[in-house]
Design brief:
Layout (H helix, E strand, L loop, with lengths): L8 E5 L5 H10 L4 E5 L2 H9 L5 E8 L3 E2 L1 H6 L6 E9 L3 E4 L10 E4 L1 H6 L1 H7 L2 E4 L3 H11 L4 E5 L1 H7 L2 E5 L8 E8 L9 E9 L5 H10 L5 E8 L7 E8 L5 H13 E11 L4
Parallel strand pairs: 1-2, 1-3, 7-8, 7-9
Antiparallel strand pairs: 3-4, 3-11, 5-11, 6-9, 6-10, 12-14, 12-15, 13-14
Length: about 280
């Protein structure tokens, strides 16, 4: 368990009331000073330029999968992952205090939130419009006085902007969690209960991925996640994003990473960090 510093300034994407802001408080405690940013790239840039010491970004959702833009940004910025949090997401349908459910014609929210509530919204026959943020959608409806619109966001967003909750917990499954990463410039020492995240790209030869993963398997290292993303450089070439148990400075993990480097075109260690809390 990390003892985070008091009064830490932490960048997050979205408006006050966003789930990322909730994650900041959950990780850093009530004295944290969240700094809202419009785009994920702004969060990375804030940490990279020392505008803030930390950043918090969502990396994947249990319903909609990975936040691909965040994964891609790790290739642009040499930042470290130094913590994680799995936060249960409870989506609410939020509208103007004078709006009733049957009056809602369109709903605004972040694409991930819309996807997580797709079945509910389709049953209601409501048009879905993507925006950059959940809480920002609530703020927009309030500021523009949109009385036939609603937003999907958390209960706290409704409280902050003085709006009405029309329905609660509307995601397609109650087992709805978003995993967040803590960004910083510094690496953390082993705690004895760590995970490591890396990006790597294999050589274009038979068995390349199989043999690369064998560097973990042959040492009994448990892989907890793997997925691919296009390199965006050459057609049908991919980078692999992988999580495994252990710390990169532990001997067995260091040996596995060295073996992986010998078999790969490149390996980038995103960081080793204590296993997340829920």
């Amino acid at each position: 368990m990390i003892e985070w510093e008091q009064h830490a300034e932490v960048a997050f994407q979205g408006e006050p009331g966003a789930y990322s802001e909730t994650a900041v408080y959950r990780i850093f405690g009530p004295t944290a000073r969240p700094k809202p940013k419009k785009h994920f790239s702004d969060v990375f840039r804030a940490v990279w330029t020392d505008s803030t010491k930390y950043g918090v970004v969502p990396i994947e959702n249990s319903i909609e999968g990975s936040v691909n833009q965040v994964y891609d940004l790790f290739l642009q910025y040499d930042l470290k992952v130094c913590g994680e949090l799995a936060l249960r997401i409870s989506h609410c349908l939020i509208a103007d205090p004078e709006t009733d459910l049957e009056e809602v014609k369109v709903v605004y929210s972040h694409p991930q939130a819309l996807g997580q509530c797709r079945n509910y919204l389709e049953r209601l026959g409501i048009e879905m419009v993507s925006t950059y943020d959940t809480a920002g959608s609530v703020k927009m409806i309030k500021e523009q006085r949109l009385t036939t619109a609603a937003a999907i966001a958390g209960e706290r967003a409704a409280e902050i902007y003085g709006m009405k909750i029309l329905a609660q917990d509307i995601a397609d499954t109650r087992n709805n969690y978003t995993r967040f990463f803590v960004l910083a410039k510094n690496e953390l020492p082993p705690t004895g209960n760590d995970k490591t995240s890396i990006i790597f790209s294999t050589k274009h030869v038979p068995r390349a991925l199989y043999e690369s993963l064998g560097e973990l398997a042959n040492r009994g290292i448990n892989m907890t996640k793997i997925e691919s993303r296009p390199t965006k450089q050459n057609l049908w070439e991919y980078n692999f994003y992988l999580d495994f148990d252990g710390h990169m400075n532990e001997q067995i993990c260091a040996e596995a990473l060295n073996g992986l480097r010998n078999r790969s075109l490149f390996v980038k260690v995103l960081g080793s960090y204590p296993r997340g809390i829920e």
